[in-house]
Write a structure and sequence with these properties.
- The protein is an alpha/beta fold.
- It has helices at about 1-10, 40, 45-65, 95-110, 145-160, 185-195, and strands at about 20, 70, 120-125, 165-170, 175, 180, 200.
- A five-stranded parallel sheet has the order 1-2-3-4-7, with helices on one face. A two-stranded antiparallel sheet has the order 5-6.
- Strand 5 and strand 6 form a beta hairpin.
- It is globular.
- The two termini are about 25 Å apart.
Length: about 200
């Protein structure tokens, strides 16, 4: 209904693009399946569970008329004080990478077919280094040496981009004194040039 109004009854006819945080199922929709958080999924060490959860989430997301999901969370869970630890796959970059790629496949399909009515566009988050602020509190500054950023934080995002992820949500904090939203080094040189990401940056 909202899309019909936007496309037929407004002067500019700009389509509505609506996304949602369906990280462990479509938890905002009455009657949808609520899955365990990603940290619990990671504890199974079984990537097929990540794929299957994503496929069910796609079905129920699309049934709600939403084509875009702000998931998976690929943050490195290296600091137990961080308040959003449960959202990610834990502290092992390899496990995060494997589980994240399977979720991308479940959301977008092996052939990256987000135009398909039973697929959704994924959104990797939070690029980059979001989950290790110095204070342990959400959205506070972090100090991360570049070698640590690359070796531990970057790999899951790199693999998910190579798997065809359509969008990336940016870390809303500060790394080494620079807001990630304003970081030429992270957004342009690393994300767009080095990783060759040409999708939507949120």
């Amino acid at each position: 209904l909202i899309q019909n109004v936007a496309m037929q009854e407004t002067r500019m006819k700009i389509p509505v693009i609506y996304g949602i945080d369906a990280i462990h199922g479509v938890t905002y929709t009455d009657g949808a399946i609520m899955f365990p958080q990603q940290i619990t999924l990671a504890a199974t060490f079984n990537p097929i569970h990540a794929y299957n959860m994503a496929q069910v989430t796609v079905y129920e997301t699309r049934a709600s008329g939403i084509p875009w999901n702000f998931s998976p969370v690929l943050d490195l869970g290296a600091d137990p004080r961080f308040s959003r630890q449960f959202e990610g796959f834990g502290e092992d970059p390899y496990l995060i990478k494997v589980m994240g790629v399977e979720m991308i496949k479940g959301y977008e399909g092996v052939t990256d077919s987000t135009g398909n009515p039973i697929k959704v566009a994924s959104c990797l988050k939070h690029f980059l280094g979001y989950s290790v602020p110095t204070s342990g509190k959400d959205r506070t500054p972090a100090f991360i040496p570049e070698n640590v950023l690359r070796e531990y934080h970057l790999e899951p995002f790199k693999a998910a981009i190579e798997a065809g992820a359509e969008s990336v949500m940016i870390n809303s904090g500060i790394i080494n004194g620079i807001s990630v939203h304003a970081s030429y080094d992270i957004l342009t040189k690393l994300l767009k040039e080095e990783l060759r990401f040409d999708g939507v940056v949120v």
